[in-house]
Backbone:
């Protein structure tokens, strides 16, 4: 029996001549087992020798493990655990090598676009569409052929109007989902000289011409169009193009100029992580939030699986939220509502909102909000 000095348990040494340094020796001991005492001769090994044996075994195991194949499909970078209970340092950071979700590669962006059509006569009426005093939910299933509209001077084009200024509700903006066939478009798209616009492409390609300069926007393409900018839009590709067109009456301010036109793509902009979320909640911003010439922002908000808005946002900004990708449960006023790619949420000012993105993939939406202006006072 070998003892290392730390595993005495029920062994008592009654006589042990001190062995030379680093050597083993013998001792007379007493064991206690099942209530009985028994005298025995014990082989005593110095602790240094036992530790050396344990270290040798550890190195062998380490060498064996190093020869095993590493699971290359799984790479979640973890931060050191903080002693603070409120610190998010233990939350995984999602990297480009994170595992693909059940819905495919979790790092691939997608853009849902409605295709129209008409439900069959056998389809059940039950749906998630609702309109309340604080918010509206327009599910993707409502984007049928019979609710489309047409606009003057637009060729081979139809659209779904999903938001418009509505007294006592959301009053600042309109939002269309445009569908332009090959060769279609308009040379007089905007008839209101005081209107600014944002175009965001979710399918196909469009060409916007401004001041004799052509700008081709593909999926993820963004254009900010100032008032009186004299732009035109055409689909010169061989496939149908679909895009969001958000319009707002620009609020001029003495001493401030109007913003310049912008032609960008989401893929070229690094999302800005929300503080303390380790990338679970991020925003892609197309304009500088400190540039107060802009009186509206159209951003893309992204949640990784498990990401949340951890409080009920209650603020003055109106919202239009079009779900580009994934699904989540969204808190609107006092209701939890399930939403998925293709759904639209329309919120009036001060409507409480929160979100839980349960996965399995990213949850992303296009977000409108009015910003950077005094509140208009009644006279």
Residues:
């Amino acid at each position: 029996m070998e003892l290392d000095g730390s595993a005495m348990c029920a062994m008592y040494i009654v006589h042990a001549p001190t062995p030379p340094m680093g050597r083993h020796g013998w001792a007379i001991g007493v064991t206690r087992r099942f209530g009985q005492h028994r005298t025995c001769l014990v082989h005593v090994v110095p602790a240094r020798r036992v530790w050396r044996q344990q270290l040798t075994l550890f190195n062998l195991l380490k060498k064996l493990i190093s020869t095993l194949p590493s699971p290359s499909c799984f790479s979640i970078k973890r931060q050191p655990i903080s002693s603070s209970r409120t610190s998010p340092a233990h939350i995984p950071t999602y990297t480009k090598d994170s595992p693909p979700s059940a819905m495919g590669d979790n790092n691939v962006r997608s853009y849902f676009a409605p295709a129209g059509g008409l439900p069959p006569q056998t389809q059940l009426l039950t749906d998630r569409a609702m309109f309340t005093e604080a918010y509206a939910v327009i599910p993707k299933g409502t984007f049928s052929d019979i609710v489309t509209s047409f606009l003057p001077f637009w060729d081979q084009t139809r659209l779904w109007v999903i938001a418009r200024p509505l007294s006592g509700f959301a009053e600042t903006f309109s939002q269309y989902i445009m569908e332009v066939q090959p060769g279609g478009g308009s040379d007089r798209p905007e008839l209101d000289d005081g209107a600014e616009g944002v175009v965001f492409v979710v399918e196909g390609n469009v060409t916007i011409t401004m001041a004799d300069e052509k700008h081709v926007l593909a999926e993820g393409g963004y254009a900010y169009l100032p008032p009186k900018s004299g732009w035109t839009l055409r689909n010169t590709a061989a496939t149908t193009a679909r895009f969001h067109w958000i319009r707002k009456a620009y609020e001029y301010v003495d001493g401030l100029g109007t913003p310049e036109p912008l032609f960008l793509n989401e893929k070229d902009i690094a999302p800005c992580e929300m503080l303390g979320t380790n990338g679970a909640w991020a925003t892609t911003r197309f304009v500088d939030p400190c540039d107060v010439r802009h009186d509206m922002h159209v951003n893309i908000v992204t949640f990784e699986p498990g990401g949340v808005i951890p409080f009920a946002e209650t603020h003055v900004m109106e919202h239009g939220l079009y779900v580009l990708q994934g699904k989540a449960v969204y808190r609107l006023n006092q209701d939890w509502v399930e939403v998925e790619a293709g759904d639209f949420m329309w919120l009036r000012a001060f409507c409480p909102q929160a979100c839980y993105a349960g996965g399995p993939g990213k949850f992303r939406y296009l977000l409108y909000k009015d910003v950077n202006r005094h509140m208009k006072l009644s006279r």
User: Anything to note?
Assistant: The helical segments are 47-66.
